[in-house]
Each structure stands twice: as structure tokens, then as C-alpha cells.
Design goal:
This protein is of the alpha/beta class. About 60% of the residues lie in helices and about 15% in strands. The protein folds into two domains: about 150 residues, no CATH class; about 60 residues, CBS-domain (Roll), CATH 3.10.580.10. The protein contains nine helices and seven strands. It has a four-stranded mixed beta sheet with strand order 1-2-3-4. Strands 5-6-7 form a three-stranded mixed beta sheet. Helix 2 packs across helix 4, helix 3 packs antiparallel against helix 4 and helix 6 packs antiparallel against helix 7. The longest helix is centred in the C-terminal third of the chain and has 38 residues. The protein is elongated and about 75 Å long. The model has no long low-confidence stretch (mean pLDDT about 85).
């Protein structure tokens, strides 16, 4: 549900978030629910502010029980360094709010009921988002580091799978908490949505991958230079397997060799992408010809 438009960005409330606010209302603690809403809102707009400062477009933000998901330009995930800076902005905002609350307490501007809840909620949102699991902030940092070694597509798949594993673990913890009477259903509901959101990120991996391939040529034209990475592959290896090893912010030069190591072709990343667009991902590298 669209909530408002702020700074050129559409704000949406996810149904799960509305359900969580409804639980607060039923429990008679709606004020705490609104505090949680404000904390999540500030957390997410810290991401937006940093992204805009770094030149990343932000079209919309969807507020979720554990934070939110900002729809940002695909250039974000193609630059691991930028993605890390944007990702850590949310938890950093939570820790700043905690320091602010402590300062208010030290000046006797403190509510004995809502003050501790404010700090607890900020800690929960920050620590939860630091888990190394997509689509959480820690998962985006994890993916950014993995992408430098495994490529964007594989890094996304691994980080999203981590998200689903953490979700299952938290769902079980939530059920145990309900059984012991120490938590409500909110923990299990949040973890359930994390599982769903991680699956959605995993499904987006192929689209990120294609965008990565198409944009790399634009990056080279815009910057004028990119660090090179040389790869040696056997002629029977498919082009799909080769491009899945391409790393962000590097331009790849590929030497195709036969079984005895003789060079059959030397081709560029752009030539491989063009061949894939012509014949598909299953074309063997041996069909590449030097230009």
C-alpha cells in the first residue's frame, strides 16, 4: 500500500508491516508500534540519503517488519564499495538514535516506559539487519565481498540462501519462544517474511546478472578504463559458465585453449556477451573466433 511520496521517492507499507502494527494495536500498545514504525522509517531513509549522495537513483521504499527494501538503480549492486556504504547507513542510523536517547536520559528528558523500548527497538533493528543474509543490510555487505571473488550472480544466490537459512532458524526460535512464553508471534512472522524476501532476492539474481553483463560495456565507455582480469578456459567450456565468473568493476580478457594448451582464440568480454546474445549461454568457447 502506497503511504506517501517523499523527496521524489514513493513509500510503500508492506501488508506484513501493517499486520505487525495491528498486533501492537490489539495488544494495547499502539504507541510502541508507532515508535517501531518511526525507527524503521528513519533506518530506511538513512539508506536513501546515502544512496542519493553517491548518485544512486531511488524510486521507491517498501517498509517491512525488519526494516525495508529500497528500489535503487542497478548500478548499486554493480559497485561493491558503494553497496557497502549504502548498506551500513541504516544500522549506523539506529546506533546514532541510541546515543541520542542516552543523551536525553542523561539530561532527565526520559520516559521510563517508552525510553527503554526505543533503545531496545533500535538495537533489535540494527542487529537483525547486520545478519549476513539477503535482503538484510548485512547480507548486502556479504554479497558485495563475495561478488569480488565469485561474481554478482553467484554472490546473490549464496547470500539469499543464507537469508532463507537464517529465516528457518529464527522461525524455530520464535516457536520455542512462544512455547516458553518469552516472545509473541511477531518473531515468527518477521522470520517468515524474511524467508519470502530472501527467495525474492534469489529469483532476481539472473536479472542482476544480465544487467551486469550489459552495463559493463557502458562502464568502460564512461570511465575510459577498467582493471583487466585474464582468464584461460578450455574450448569445450560454455560461454555461460565463463560469464558467471565475471567480476564487477573488472574487464575480462579470455584465452581459449585446446586440451594440450594451444591458444585457439583471444577474445574480450564484450565479444563473449555479443556471442551469447546471438547463440545463447550454451555455446562452447571453441566457437569464438579472434576478431
Amino acid at each position: 500500500m502506497k503511504f506517501l511520496r517523499l523527496m521524489g521517492t514513493d513509500i510503500y507499507l508492506n501488508p506484513f508491516f501493517l499486520a505487525l502494527l495491528a498486533l501492537f494495536f490489539v495488544a494495547g500498545v499502539l504507541v510502541k508500534g508507532l515508535i517501531a514504525f518511526a525507527i524503521v522509517f528513519i533506518h530506511e531513509f538513512a539508506h536513501v540519503a546515502v544512496a542519493r549522495k553517491l548518485g544512486i537513483t531511488v524510486s521507491q521504499v517498501e517498509l517491512l517488519p525488519f526494516g525495508g527494501v529500497a528500489r535503487m538503480g542497478q548500478e548499486l549492486s554493480l559497485d561493491p564499495g558503494t553497496e557497502i556504504r549504502v548498506a551500513v547507513a541504516g544500522p549506523a542510523a539506529n546506533f546514532i538514535m541510541i546515543l541520542f536517547a542516552i543523551a536525553l536520559k542523561n539530561h532527565n528528558l526520559w520516559d521510563s516506559n517508552l525510553g527503554p523500548f526505543f533503545i531496545q527497538c533500535n538495537l533489535l533493528v540494527a542487529c537483525f539487519n547486520l545478519l549476513p543474509a539477503l535482503p538484510l543490510d548485512g547480507g548486502r555487505v556479504y554479497r558485495a565481498f563475495l561478488a569480488r571473488k565469485k561474481g554478482l550472480s553467484e554472490a546473490t544466490r549464496i547470500a539469499a540462501a543464507q537469508g532463507q537459512k537464517w529465516a528457518v532458524f529464527l522461525i524455530l526460535c520464535g516457536f520455542l519462544g512462544i512455547y516458553l512464553g518469552v516472545t509473541g508471534v511477531d518473531v515468527s512472522l518477521t522470520a517468515l517474511f524474511l524467508f519470502y524476501a530472501a527467495g525474492r532476492e534469489k529469483n532476481r539474481a539472473p536479472y542482476l546478472f544480465i544487467n551486469h553483463l550489459v552495463r559493463k560495456k557502458d562502464e568502460l565507455e564512461e570511465d575510459g578504463l577498467l582493471p583487466a582480469r585474464v582468464m584461460v578456459v578450455l574450448e569445450h567450456v560454455t560461454l555461460g559458465k565463463i560469464v558467471r565468473s565475471f567480476l564487477p568493476q573488472k574487464y575480462h580478457l579470455v584465452m581459449v585453449v585446446d586440451s594440450i594448451g594451444q591458444v585457439k582464440a583471444r577474445v574480450t568480454e564484450s565479444e563473449i556477451v555479443e556471442k551469447i546474445l546471438e547463440g545463447g549461454m550454451d555455446v562452447p568457447a571453441g566457437q569464438m573466433k579472434e576478431s
